[in-house]
Amino acid sequence: MNNWNETQPIFVQIRERLTDMILTASVKEGEALPSVRQIATDLSVNPLTVTKAYQSLVDLGVIEKRRGLGMFVAEGARKELLAHEREAFLKNEWPRIVKQIKALDLDFEELMRHADQ
Length: 117
Description:
This is GntR family transcriptional regulator. InterPro entries: Tscrpt_reg_HTH_GntR, WH-like_DNA-bd_sf, WH_DNA-bd_sf. By secondary structure, this protein is mainly alpha-helical. The chain has a single domain (10-115), classed as Arc Repressor Mutant, subunit A (Orthogonal Bundle). 61% of the residues lie in helices and 7% in strands. The protein has five helices and two strands; from the N terminus they run H-H-H-E-E-H-H. A two-stranded antiparallel sheet has the order 1-2. Strand 1 (63-66) and strand 2 form a beta hairpin. It is elongated, with a radius of gyration of 17 Å.
């Protein structure tokens, strides 16, 4: 049974799992990713949901379809994903975090002390 975050579409959460697999090198560049059917079965979701997650990574250029073979991690995928995820973090999440840091009157040294815990 999966614990899906109800505030995000399931395909986005699957995409995040696939992204994590690439960023942590669980699946290396040039290697095959699990099939759509395998993921759909493992996660008990519709194969179209998994296909949508894969397509978003194809559109980003980090995975590639090989006809009759499946999905593979593209060369340079980790570097591309790092750049994309960093940009998304700085644009979408960082402003909210900075606002909260300021509201709580936290300073850099205090944040760094807690970062190591």
